[in-house]
Amino acid sequence: MTRYAEKDTAITGIGMSEVSRGATKSALALTVDACLEAIADAGLTRAEIDGIATWPGERADGSGFSAVGCAAVQDALRLKLGWYAGGGEAPGQYGAVFNAIGAIAAGLCRNVLIFRTMYEATARKTAFANALLKEGQRQAGPFAWYAPYYTYAAALQQALFFNLYVHKSGITLEQVAQIPINQRRNAGLNPKAVYRTPITLADYLAAPLIATPLRLFDCDVPCDGAVAIIVSRLDVARGLRNPPVRIEAIGSSMQYRNSWTQLDALDTQAQPKVAEMMWSRTDLKPADVDIAQLYDGFTFHTLNWLENFGFCERYGAKDFIEGGTRIALEGDLPVNTGGGALSAGRLHAYGAVHEACTQLWGRGGERQVKGGPQVCATSTAGGPLAGAMLLVRD
Amino acid sequence: MHTPKPPARIPPAVDMDSQPYWTGGKDGQLLIHRCADCAYFVHPPVPFCPACEGRNVAPVPVSGRGRVATFTINHKQWVPGLPVPYVLALVELEEQADVRLVGNITHCDPAEVTFGMAVEVWFEQLDDLWVPLFRPVERL
Ligand SMILES: [Zn+2]
């Protein structure tokens, strides 16, 4: 029988820098804070870190999207590594984790430091940093097809997908609003969240319309911050400080056309096959999941993941989130318990992993889900990118 | 008060495969790569047919008609002078629905755009390129 390599790995430590709308220190300094915290949390020393990974690797384009890469962290911490990798062509942001699983299985390393650094809040103070388009410059790559059509931000492509989803599912604005309202309530109990003041349905409806049907509170919040996690070989993990958070199963497939225009199913995006792959690698079922940290670059992604993970039927998310009780901290399936990227800050799926471990280790403080959650489903990304992980407390 | 100039469209980087798509409009033609062996349209263009593995794939003029697969009405003024609202859409080509073309829907009120709406191509020159845009098909 196939032994899936992820089952021999676990998350053993987590770290998070200050998270803000304008940092008091450099992107590298934030990263060092997160990394040192994660290493110490695992009960390890710098000398025991023998692998490093990040997604999408350093992009020195001034956008703050990924201001720090492996080389800068390796040198800052003077790490001595058996393996390293940073790159964007992967199953979404969790590609770095999936790469680390492979490297551990290959015997290249035992304790991998994985980090993600965002510096978009500071970048936007000086430039229109989220522009997909730069004046006076011909647009190459997959976004060339969008270039001449005033497609200034990822929000527009997501709005194309979201609008079709609304059209097909019949979801109402009032129902969609439950996602950001729930997450802001959770963020109010998270001292590190960027925005903590509750929002109401009236606030959601009154917020600016970006591109139909996307409104301001459907979009995540650019921030400055870094997250680090340690992924260790399971036998090593069992000798460390925290109960291992085992990586029970992953979904990393590319079964659909990997395209921002020709994606097979515009309204479900790349997620269904990725979720299917994750469930095929475990005996656990959606009903076994205690909490979910679902990608929320836009509210639409969270709705999509609820359906694609099988927590509800296709186009059933509208009923699942109706009134917000089922996804609340006290509900059947608490979702994005720390406020998520919509309220806690756009830490780009690594805020979600950090929160998953926080909850599974019972460190959630005021926002801790009752009953000692053991199983968390996590997911990342939208459009043609998707990755999924099922995390289980050992 | 000074009104900022509307921003220019940003040209795509063009290579040997995509050049016909972005320049066919000079002769009023929308050019899409098609396999000469099995007639499958290959878009984005590449000289390989994923349907029959044929290598005889070349641009041919198509009807320029299609249907709105999905769209969004953009309201945010991303840069100074950007006229809003405007419609961004993915259009399914009449000849083959899995060829999806990006474009703005013009010549109508954004509020009139609907899913499945019949549209036809027109072209706007941008430097050495002709950008395909779409407008509602005239009702007869
Ligand atoms: Zn063919």
From TrEMBL, chain A:
Descriptive protein name: Thiolase C-terminal domain-containing protein
Record-annotated Thiolase C-terminal domain positions: 258-391
GO molecular-function terms, A-Z: acetyl-CoA C-acyltransferase activity
From TrEMBL, chain B:
Residue ranges occupied by any ChsH2 C-terminal OB-fold domain in the UniProt entry: 60-124
InterPro entries the record matches: ChsH2_C, ChsH2_Znr, NA-bd_OB-fold, Thioester_dehydratase-like
Domain annotation ChsH2 rubredoxin-like zinc ribbon: ranges: 22-57
Alphabetized Pfam families for the sequence: OB_ChsH2_C, zf-ChsH2
Keywords linked to the UniProt accession: DNA-binding
Any GO MF annotation of the entry: DNA binding
Protein name (Swiss-Prot/TrEMBL): DNA-binding protein
